Amino acid sequence: MANYKMNDNDVVVIIGSGAGGGTLANELCQQGVGVVLLEAGKRQSTKSFVNNEWESFGQLAWLEPRTTSGSWRVAKDFSGLPAWICKTVGGSTVHWAGASLRLQEHEFHTKTEYGDIDGANLLDWPISLKDLEPYYARAEDKMGVTRTNNIPGLPGNNNFKVMYAGATKLGYKHCHTGRMAINSRPRDGRASCLQLGFCFQGCKTGAKWSTLYTEIPEAEATGKLDLRPESYVLQIQHDKSGKVNGVLYADANGEQHLQKARAVCVAGNSIETPRLLLNSASSMYADGMANSSGQVGQNYMRHMT
Question: Mean pLDDT score of the chain, rounded to an integer?
């Protein structure tokens, strides 16, 4: 693994090691680009994962005090935990269920299809499904998504069997276990799913795709990746012209470091990314970095699955 100096301004700094950050790190390293990958959490492994929901939460989640507000049910029920987002190498690819669905065409044009929604600044996407299809196909192949590329689907568990019986009784013609980034058979050196049922606690067999044991080790093998776990980013800095040139972060001991960079990628999921951009406000960017629209930190959405 590489070990770049703090004043090396030829590296690309990536903040967050999940689906976006971990994958980008590997893509850049494969092209010979030096990468510093900053991750706030610790590095776990398939051996260190714990098949215990509460114990695993302490191992993978953000435990720092959190606050939320408003009338939303989540704000009332979990005032100190507005979201279950991972703080660990691999990010939320460690915790996710593996569901890998494509958006449908109508979802790119919700404003046109369904009209305005009171209190929301709803807009159509500026791209279409056709624009994304080549990238969907590439991602599905890389992650080994079931029911794509001749990969068989996963077997149904007991929950699925109950749902399937009800759906077919109601007349549904297409009901299956869906597209999952979980191996239904051995692939890419990873085992097939054993149906243990602890997907959210980290996959102990490595059957579920995660950058922790796919993209990141591949990037390390190039000798171009400098992975720094337990590195909590505080601020993105820029030069007099407004161009980003470094990242300020604190290590596990609380000591602050400034890593210089030629480019910075922010990949900290839906809470940490806007938080960091807003905390990187300066005299030049009074409303936060990359926030000329005023929309950074707005329009938060949770998955409905």
Answer: 94
Phi, psi dihedrals of residue 14, rounded to the nearest 5°: -115, 130
Taking domain 1-94+210-305, whether its CATH number is 3.40.50.300 is answered by: no
Answer whether 244's CB lies under 8 Å from 264's CB.
yes
Confidence of residue 63 (pLDDT cuts 50, 70, 90): confident
Indicate the burial class of 174 (C-beta count within 10 angstroms; 0-12, 13-18, 19 or more). Answer: exposed
79-83 long-range contacts, CB within 8 A, separation 24+: 82/271, 83/270, 83/271, 83/302
pLDDT in tens, 122-181: 899 999 999 999 999 999 999 999 999 999 999 998 999 999 999 999 999 989 999 999
Domain boundaries, the chain: 1-94+210-305, 98-191
The phi and psi torsions of 273 (rounded to 5 degrees) equal: -65, -55
Q: How confident is the model at residue 82 (pLDDT cuts 50, 70, 90)?
A: low
d(CA 262, CA 247): 11
Q: Is 292 exposed, middle or buried (0-12, 13-18, 19+ CB in 10 A)?
A: exposed
Q: Count Cβ atoms below 10 Å from residue 166 Cβ, excluding itself.
A: 11
> CB-side exposure of 42: number of CA atoms within 13 Å?
11
Distance of CA 243 to CAs 45, 256, 263, 287, Å? 37, 22, 9, 16
The answer to whether 13 and 5 are in contact (CB under 8 A) is: no
Cβ contact 220:89 at 8 Å: no
| CA separation for the pair 226, 233 (Å, rounded) | 15
